[in-house]
Amino acid sequence: MNDVYKKIKLIAFYLPQYHPIPENDEWWGKGFTDWTNVVKAKPLFKGHYQPRIPSDLGCYDLRMPEVKEAQANLAQEHGIHGFCYYHYWFNGKRVLERPFEEVLSSGKPDFPFCLCWANENWTRTWSGGDEHILLKQEYSEDDDRAHIKSLLPAFSDKRYIKVNGKPLFLVYRIELLPNPKKTAEIWRGEAVKAGIGDIYLGVVESVKSINPKTIGFDVAVEFAPHWRDMLAWKSKSSRFHKKLMKFGLIPKIYADNFITSYQILVDTMLKDSNRSYKRFRCVTPSFDNSPRREKQAAIFTGSTPQKYETWLKRILEWTMQEHEGDERLVFINAWNEWGEGNHLEPDKRWGKCYLEATKAALDSITTIDDIRRSRVKETKEKPIASIVILTKNGGALFRRSIKNILSQKTTFTYEVVIVDTGSTDGTLEFLRSFPEVTIYEISPKNFRFGPTRDFGFSKAKGEFVVTISQDVVPVNENWLENLARPLLKDETDVVQGQTCARTDRKIFFWEDRDYFFFTSESKSFHKNNGNIGLSCANLAIKKDVWERTRFGDALMSEDKALQKRLFASGYRMVRKRDALCYHGHTYNLKSLMKRCENEGMGWRKIGVKYSFTQMLNDLKHEKWLYGMVLKKIIKREMTNLAEILFLFIRPIFLYKGNLMNKGYKF
Predict the structure, then answer these.
(1) CATH class given for the domain over 370-586
(2) 295-348 pLDDT, tens per residue?
(3) Whole-number pLDDT of residue 317
(4) Residue closest to 470 by CA, chosen among 409, 432, 419, 508
(5) Looking at residue 458, what is its pLDDT?
(6) Residue 150: CB partners within 8 Å, gap ≥ 6?
(7) Per-residue model confidence as pLDDT tens digits over 410-455
(8) Domain spans of the chain?
(9) Kind of pairing between the strands at 279-283 and 473-474
(10) Which residues in 534-562 are b (16+ Cβ under 10 Å) and which e?
(11) Consecutive H or E run containing 186
(12) CA–CA gap between residue 242 and residue 71 (Å, rounded)
């Protein structure tokens, strides 16, 4: 088994609902379980995957011990470390407790577990009626004591999952507790008094996000899908969308439910990586709770094992970089939430594909320590290549980039040179852990793109120099070899690598469609300067060629300034499409305007004019483009105002910037 299984642990949320209980018999009918809703579900629109029918394990009954054994075996075979059982406690009354109590009392299956208190009121939510409460939560200090005492036998079990020696216990809806800090204090005190020691308390971000330290908890646990905060769904209540519904431009099924793509969910949650507090990440293989809801269902379309695997892999990489030891935990929602369409258990359409994708994501992870051991290049000798990167607060994405750079498979030696301009996010500390990386620091007030890049190149020892942006990530381990090959063979003087859309986050729509530089000044510049667009995002150049041309004093657009000099001097330039890196941006309205205005100023600084006539011509677009935008707005696939107005913003603010003759705005 891959050693990474010991270094990072996957925990799947587990629903212990699949057996009859008196309360459900009374409220929903004799013999009711979630299977009742699952098997009668129907597709609501073309391509809607319902019903989801289990395959290998069937519509099981959790009162059967062999079912729980089969679940544990299946999970363990595919890299799942343990289950997080939902635990239901209502002022001393427990419900759906039988499956877990039997696991606890029997000692079987021998599979790790922890608990999550699902502390919501029980209501008729499944039929869309939140107003009818079936079981109500009543909070008190006495109940806190009774509750934690009831959990001590579970905490004492050798199978119970511990973090830094402390039993891990989660609360699903922390905002419902009247005084969570006091509750945490009582729980810890009772656990210590009973000889358990301290406990490791987690806040599940099911509805709201909160810094756990402010309420006496240890960690937050991301919950997927966190759909209530998604911008695409907030847009449902906007005036614009209400008008579209009024005139029938949005189908009723879209008005009655929250429907969007699984990929949008992945992109949105991957972007949500920067928090000031400790946080365990979470993914979901799919989500569709329409079997439980007649209206207001959340449906994410287009999930596949491949998309899920990519998401999980990115989260595993983030976790390896951000956490250490027992805190390298990742949650999956869920093992068996069939009524919400999020399950790793096999179904008739996909079989074990999602489980196999889980194992594949784990198997693909390489730790930083593994990279150091596997990199056999000796940078003590004079390197053939130097990779120069300008950094400032590179964050998790830059860490991923360095990881990929240092694991390149090449036929030559190479070094990495960093020029940092004031990082305060731990970037420098991270880089100093790599002896093969050389770091130079300059003051932020002295930063200018052209001179700073020239400074970095001057420190390079290689025969050729590679430069990439700090938010660019090599796609595979052959990127550097592919980029360098034409230089090693003396087939060219400059190589421009290729970039493609990042898979770990949503990027600006028009960049993803390769339409960002549609305006005429870009096309004419490339045509008049070698029919290529040089970009420092992914570029290699012979060092002696750079020494004769240089980036110069350009504040911005330094790559275009270099290209003009290279073309004028007759140097050879080629593009290598197999030297591939992930790259992409996101913009809001303000940052898009600023970017286009600065670009216009950059063109002006290198002698490229963008006239009023060019602007007017560039504002004329074919009708199909506007039709495409309208269609995506209706489907809620385009909700970012910057994307909606981009076709107008770029020409106008490019022209505005090109008129200016003052410093750049950063």
Answers:
(1) alpha beta
(2) 888 999 999 999 999 999 999 988 987 888 999 999 999 999 999 999 999 999
(3) 86
(4) 419
(5) 96
(6) 89, 94
(7) 989 999 999 999 999 889 998 998 888 999 999 999 898 999 999 9
(8) 4-229+261-363, 370-586, 587-666
(9) unpaired
(10) bbbbbbbbbbebbeebbbbebbbbbbbbb
(11) helix 180-193
(12) 45
The residues pairing with 387 across neighbouring beta strands, listed in sequence order, are: 416, 466
Amino acid (1-letter code) at residue 71: Q
Residue 130 has pLDDT above 80, yes or no: no
Rounded CA-CA distance 535/545 in Å is: 16
Pairing outcome for strands 80-90 and 93-95? antiparallel
Q: How many whole angstroms separate alpha carbon 155 and alpha carbon 162?
A: 9
Q: What is the dihedral of CA 25, 26, 28, 30, to 10 degrees?
A: 40
336's enclosing H/E stretch is: strand 336-337
Are 362 and 5 within 8 A, CB to CB?
yes
Which alpha helices (H) appear in 495-622, and where do they start and end?
509-512, 520-528, 543-549, 558-568, 589-605, 612-618
Strand 258-261 and strand 298-301: the pairing is: parallel
Cα three-residue angle 260-266-272, rounded to 5 degrees: 115
Q: Sort 661 into a burial class: Cβ within 10 Å, 0-12 / 13-18 / 19+.
A: exposed
CA separation for the pair 533, 535 (Å, rounded): 6
| Beta bridge partners of residue 391, listed in sequence order | 420
For 13, the 3-state DSSP assignment is strand
Indicate the helix (H) or strand (E) that contains 431. helix 427-431
Per the listing, tokens 């950063």 go with 666
| b/e code 179-194 from CB counts within 10 Å (16+ = b) | ebeebbebbbebbeee
**Average pLDDT of span 2-20:** 86
Tens-place pLDDT, residues 532-581: 889 999 999 999 999 999 998 877 789 999 999 999 999 999 999 999 99
What mean pLDDT do residues 134-162 have? 96
Please give the distance of CA 546 from its chain centroid, rounded to a whole number. 37
Distance from C-alpha of 637 to C-alpha of 101, rounded to nearest angstrom: 45
CA distance 278 to 211: 8
Which of 405, 331, 332 is closest to 371 using CA atoms? 405
Here the tokens at position 357 are: 């994708």
Q: Are 603 and 596 in contact (CB under 8 A)?
A: no
Count the neighbouring beta carbons within 10 Å of the beta carbon of residue 636: 22
Question: Whose structure tokens read 């809806």?
Answer: 173
User: Contacts for 303-307 with beta carbons within 8 Å, 24 or more apart?
Assistant: 303/262, 304/262, 305/350, 305/353, 305/354, 305/356, 305/357, 306/357, 307/262, 307/263, 307/266
Amino acid at site 141: E
Task: Assign 10 to helix, strand or coil.
Answer: strand
Q: Could you tell me the CA-to-CA distances from 134 to 20, 319, 446 in Å, in that order?
A: 16, 39, 65
Tell me, rounded to whole angstroms, the distance of Cα 140 from its chain centroid: 38
Structure token pair of residue 163: 């973090």
pLDDT of residue 376 exceeding 70: no
441, β-bridge pairs: 420
Fold of 4-229+261-363: TIM Barrel (3.20.20)
Residue 443 near residue 421 (C-beta atoms within 8 A) = yes
One-letter amino acid for residue 446 of the chain: N
At which residue do the structure tokens 């989801």 appear? Answer: 52
477-514 pLDDT per residue, tens: 899 999 999 999 999 999 999 988 765 567 788 888 88
Q: Are 580 and 475 in contact (CB under 8 A)?
A: yes
C-alpha closest to that of 495 among 581, 576, 384: 576
Q: What are phi and psi of 190, to 5 degrees?
A: -65, -35
> Which residues, listed in sequence order, are joined to residue 94 by a DSSP beta bridge?
89
